[in-house]
Every structure is written in C-alpha cells, then in structure tokens.
Model the fold of this input.
Amino acid sequence: MKRTKRINSLVLIVAMICVSLIGARVSMAAYPDHPVKLLVGFPPGGPASTISTLIAKRVSEFMEHPMVVEHRPGAGATLAATTVAKVKPDGYTLLTGSDSPLLIAPLITKDLAYSLEDFIPIVGYAYAPTFISCRKGRWSSLKEMIEDAKKNPGKYTYSSQSVNSFNHFAGKLLCEKAGIDLTYIAYPGNAEALAALLGGHLDLVVVAGTSGLYEAGRIDSLAIAEKKRLKDYPKIPTLDELGYPIFLNSYYFLCAPKGTPQEVINKLTDVNKKAFAKYGDEIEELVRKFEMLTNFMSGEEVVKQNNYRRDEFRRITKSMGIYIPNR
Done:
C-alpha cells in the first residue's frame, strides 16, 4: 500500500512538472501577451529618445502587443539601467543601451548596482557622432574658439549629454589637448543643453547629434569627433585633422536584463530584423535629420563592439584619474 502511494505521488509530481513545462511553452509562444516597455534613460528630444521612439513604432507592427517608450532620465541614464537590471527578466521591460550608462558608468561609479554583463544586447540600431558646436556666427572655426579661450581662461562654458558621458569626455580631452580652460555646466540631456546654447546660456556644446539644429542652420558645428569626415557632413572637419585625435561617438542598442529566456531574445531579434527590412530606408532618412546614422547589428556584433569600446573607455578613464580599479 505504501509503495503504491509513493508511486502515485511520483506520478502526480511528474504530471505537475509536465503541465508546468507545457504552460511555460504556451506562455513563451504567446510572448508578448501585453505591451512591452522600452526604457530610455535620457529626456525626450535627444538621440536616444528619437531612435527609441522611431524603432518602437515600427517594431510594434510585427508584435502582438505594442512596444511603448518610457523615459526615465537621471544620473546619466544609470537610473533606467538600474531599473532594467533588477526587473524580472521576462522580456517586458527592455532598455535602450548606450555607452554612457552601460560602458562608462560601471568604470567610474562606486557601488553601481549593475555591470555591462547584466544585460543581453539584442540588436544594434544607430550611432550619433559627437559634434562640437556653438551659436550661429559665434566662432568661425575651432582654431578661433581655442585662441579665444586661451586668452580668456575659464570665461567660456560648455555642456554635454550628461556628466561623465562619452561626449563630456570628448570635451575634457579637447580642453586637455588644446591647453584651454572651459567651464562645464551640467544639463540632464542633449535637448536641454542645446536649448541653453540657443538661449545664450552656453558658449559651446559637445553632444551626440544636434537634434537637427545644424541641418536647420541654427548653430555652427566647428568639429566632429571622428577619424575621418562623414559623407553626410563633408564641411565639418574632424578633431583628428585639426590636431586633436579624439574619436568618441555613442552607439544605441536594444538590450534585455540577464536571464531573459532565449525564446524571447529570438522573438525580439526577429521583429527588429523585420522592421529594418521593411522600413530601413525610412528609418535611415529620419535619423539623419537628427544627425544620427543607422548601423543595424546583431546581438553578437554589439557584444564584440561593446567589449572593444569598454577597453577604450577604461584607458581614457585611467588617463583622467577617475577609473575605479577592478571594474
């Protein structure tokens, strides 16, 4: 009798496990069964917001439920990254990843709650070159700005995407290499910094893209932090050709928290591929209006690129004396 009860108990346990596995497969097959949140760590109006909103709209066409952008600005986008790193890894809360929160912040922030390895890159979207820009007609060239700054140390101000972002680093490196002293003023994102520039509250911005202000002729871009001139902006010289070898831009990619089921990653990869296959030309045309360039990459390619770029940022942060050892 006891043996029979034990056998019946084992049969019941096995049956429950099977039902659970079948339920999990059905649930996974139905993903998503409600809207997916895409967190952006920067305010609306900047490149991260622009590319996220554009992609989410197109990707939603190929999903059972929409992908909805939610802005969570603050602390150089680390607030949004921390949120996503801690959520249940079920594919319903994703992050628009970029250099500042995922590659740089872990190198320079003590007791940060996450590392780059806490995220799974799904696909790469686009990158935004770093523009060094001023109000229209303020300076005719980078050389003129540097000469003026040398005569007036500490007088002129600049800002970037956020404190200790990759373009903040570009500004610091330029000051160091050119031997000038510019006063940094912090703003939470590109849009706010550019608004301050237009309003006469800043002399320079070092930002990823200019939200279309350069294309509209409302500001002058004195240089771009690239190795060679970009075909879309042939009149803007590179910092390298001007004697300041600084190569810093920001790449934007979709990522999920570590532990997200592979079936979900595959589904998100697939819908993004479909969106770019159908709307690639349109997406490219639209992001160019914000001085961004599309560059669709697989998750594996993003991982490889991130590892390389993190090594570069580690070298830069060490040279600046702000690197936290063993990170």
Residues 1-28 have pLDDT under 50 and may be disordered. The longest helix spans residues 2-29.
